[in-house]
Amino acid sequence: MLEFPTEHGRIAISDEVIAGIAGAALAECHGVAGTVPRGWRQGLAGLLGTDAHGRGVEVASAEGEGIDITVRIVVTYGVPIPEVARTVMRRVGEAVRRAVGEERVRVHVHVAGVRVPPGALPGTGGPGGGPGAAAGGSPGPAPGQGGAAGPGARRPSGAEPGQPPAR
């Protein structure tokens, strides 16, 4: 919890509020596909649909020490990971500094995974499955292995699969 004494009393900002601010900034970062919760509490909150912005964000604050924020992210396949991590550090740090008024904010990024969209890798099938991928995602017969008409058989154009070759 971050506390600020004032002449009228004190202001206390919970770590959960700081995590929510960091998570909202994190959601705006290009290349971040999601976050990974740490521990059963964050996992349960994700299942129940609560605390969505703070999911995957840990906050440690101590009086006079500033704020340490650790984010666990999943990046989108194909983006430069170091660039995404630097963007996350900058944007999350700026958002928390602006919102809570603490200048000593350190952001640590843990890349916990990469999300690969279906068909993004060559030969995996699906839309844009790459060369050699047939409809349905399975490759056709290897060269020289024949097909439905048998090894080495040639089908005239217009012949149906499974019919003997024309003579």
TrEMBL record:
Residues 122-150 have a biased composition (Gly residues). Pfam families: Asp23 (PF03780). It comes from the Bacteria. Residues 115-167 are annotated as: Disordered. Residues 151-161 have a biased composition (Low complexity). Belongs to the asp23 family. This is Asp23/Gls24 family envelope stress response protein. It comes from Thermaerobacter marianensis (strain ATCC 700841 / DSM 12885 / JCM 10246 / 7p75a). The lineage of its organism: Bacteria, Bacillati, Bacillota, Clostridia, Eubacteriales.
